[in-house]
Here is the input.
Amino acid sequence: MAQDSRPARGSAHWDAHAARWRLIGAPLRPAAEDLEYLRASVGRLGSASAPAEPALARSALLLGVTPEIAELAWQPPHRLVAVDKSEGMVNAVWPGDTPTRRAIVGDWLALQLPEAPFDLVVGDGIFSLFDFPAGYTRLATALAQVVKPGGLLSVRLFCRPEPSESLDQVFQALFGGSIGNFHIFKWRLAMALQGDATRGVRLADIWTAFCERGGSVTNVAARTGWPEPVVGTIEGYRGIEERYSFSTAGEVASGLASAFELVETWQPSYELGERCPHLSFRRRS
Here is the structure.
């Protein structure tokens, strides 16, 4: 993977992703149980940096503009700032600014926010947008600068299995009818292409493997019964040189260990939930 670890979130790929957002489902987007866990865990774990006065809202930073997270009814209340590098994502996906939340276009590795540092920082799949290990290290350094000592960092990861699945296994499951939705298949395919290495997977290679083994969007939709527009979301990977990386939970925890203490790990029950764990960290003082 290229050593420039900045996430390519201002590209045509992310603008196209924004246009297809309504067709994207879990686990690429958080499911109801992810959201309930996030809301409950933040309330339960709290923050040692939180204001002593209960009437004062805590400060929160959302990396990305995931609307389901933006609209959570946090208890206690939080004042939220969301940052995404893609203007297209902000314009198409953000549910709108309110007196208690706002979204801006910015670089996660160079955040200059008047609200910083924050009591809470939340990210959904954020490490998969960076290369390993250099990009993970840079993101960990940036996170350490925006979380208050004693503050909470909550992330959902997309983790590869060990050992990796083969492409044969993934496509046998696809056409055998044992995969619950297209988005689960797409993540299994991407992770199988990456394998057990840390180099990540080029998005164009996901599209190529899909065409070589699946035939076409129309063919896969017809054989699985999935809506053709949903299957067609994979066309957003065609010709895209950018990469995703799929970590292990241990790799992420290790990268954060110098500034953050892992305080809780939780795994959702939905299909592929074992590859989508939530990790909660406390910023070391």
Remarks:
- The longest strand covers residues 147-156.
